C-alpha cells in the first residue's frame, strides 16, 4: 500500500522545479542573500520569492532578515525523508529484480532439461 506522507509530498513538490533545485545547489555552498540567489535565474524578485517560499514551506531552507537583507540557508537534514523513501523504493525494486532473475534462471534450467 502506498504511503501518503504530506511532508514527503511537500518535499517532492519543492524539488520538482529546476529553479528551486538550482537555488538549493547554490545554498549547499553556504547561506546567501535573496538578491544573490535571484541573479542567476533571470527571474524577477517576486517570482524568486515564491520559489523560496515553497522551499521554506517544505523545510528545505530557512531565512532570516537583517535590516533590508533577507538571507537564506539550506537545512540539509530536511532531505532525510526523501532519502529514506528512495532507499525503501530501491530495496523493493531490487527484491523484485532478484525474484525475476530467479524465475528466469529456473525457466532456463527447465528448458535445458
From TrEMBL:
InterPro entries recorded: ArsR-like_HTH, HTH_ArsR_DNA-bd_dom, WH-like_DNA-bd_sf, WH_DNA-bd_sf
GO molecular function, one term: DNA-binding transcription factor activity
HTH arsR-type domain mapped to chain residues: 1-94
Pfam families: HTH_20
Domain of life: Bacteria
Protein name in UniProt: Transcriptional regulator, ArsR family
Source organism of the structure: Roseibium suaedae
